[in-house]
Design goal:
The chain has four helices and eight strands. The relative contact order is 0.26. Keywords: Hydrolase.
Length: 168
């Protein structure tokens, strides 16, 4: 998958990676062309659905599970946008793989206790609205800063037609 960006804090001096995480994320379209975002009200930022790849899962399996949990939806993965590598600390690296897809059915999210505590809310908007919303976010924590940078790369890649098959 094509590398779209590397994100690190200014002046961060990288060390040997001691902790590595892989995650799958998606820009998913419903029948009206709207996409789901998760609003993290406790820290005031929005994020694309997705999350960590668990042992024994591949990227697509992880994304299908995450979409079911966070969006309450069955999805069909239709293409790839690319990956973003984040260096959140001198020795921590996360690689997020982003896909495009279609919402096949809508249900109710099944948020974890942590997600509930962070005030997760599911919101639907157009791709253009999502870009503007994420761009205006002023996250109250460091994680939100990274998520904003990462998800803007993915949303912009979709807008710029990175994945022609989906029509983003």
């Amino acid at each position: 998958m094509e590398l779209l960006a590397e994100i690190k804090e200014p002046d961060l001096i990288l060390a040997e990676v001691r902790e590595y995480r892989e995650a799958a994320r998606a820009v998913l379209f419903d029948e009206r062309g709207l996409i789901p975002l998760l609003y993290v009200s406790k820290y005031r930022f929005h994020k694309l659905p997705g999350g960590g790849i668990e042992p024994g899962e591949n990227r697509v399996e992880a994304l299908i599970r995450e979409a079911r949990e966070e969006v309450g939806s069955a999805v069909e993965i239709t293409g790839e946008l690319g990956k973003v590598v984040e260096y959140r600390a001198a020795d921590f690296q996360q690689t997020s793989y982003c896909f495009t897809g279609k919402i096949l059915s809508k249900g109710t999210p099944d948020f974890t206790e942590r997600e509930i505590a962070h005030g997760f809310q599911l919101v639907w908007m157009s791709l253009e609205e999502a870009i503007a919303t994420v761009n205006q976010d002023k996250a109250l924590n460091r994680e939100g800063w990274f998520i904003r940078q990462r998800d803007l790369v993915f949303l912009t890649a979709c807008k710029n037609g990175k994945d022609k098959r989906q029509g983003c």
